[in-house]
Amino acid sequence: MPRLTDPEDYPRAMLLYAREAIALAHNREQADLDNDRIFELALAHLVQNVGTAAETTRRNRQFWNGRLERERASLLNFRNRIAHDSDPMDRNGLWHAVTVSFPTIIPTLEKIVAANNPAQ
């Protein structure tokens, strides 16, 4: 996984973690979160990592150029709830992030990553 030290690392990390979460949830149902604690914790960890990568500083605001601003704010807020709230986990929010939010942001993240890493 990328080290989050340069501005271009953030969208690449978001993309990798989001793809991994989607792959993990493939052929699963939301009810599986109630019945499989390891699955729940693994998804929570990946969602939290996407939210951490979505966090921004002044140093990389111009890099994002307003793209995904609302989505990044939402993911960061959800990341903070996962990290700081106690159980029970917001399983509805977790499932929504993986099945709705992530597939929505992936095309934009792919464009951002491609534009900043033309050799890849």
Précis, in short:
With 120 residues, the chain is mainly alpha-helical. It is built from 6 helices and no strands.
**What percentage of amino acids are in beta strands?**
under 5%
Major pleated sheet: none
The N- to C-terminal Cα distance equals: 16 Å
The low-pLDDT segments are none
Binned, the helix content reads: over 70%
Task: Please identify the structural class as seen in this structure.
Answer: mainly alpha
Instruction: Give the SSE order as H and E letters.
Output: HHHHHH
How many independent structural domains? 1
What's the gyration radius in Å? 14 Å
Question: What form results from the Cα inertia axes?
Answer: globular
Number of strands: 0
What does this entry look like structurally?
This protein has 120 residues and is an all-alpha fold. It has one domain (9-116). The chain is 74% helix and 0% strand. It has helices at 9-25, 31-35, 37-54, 58-64, 69-84, 91-116. Helix 1 (9-25) runs antiparallel to helix 3, helix 3 crosses helix 5 (69-84) and helix 3 crosses helix 6. The longest helix has 26 residues, at 91-116.
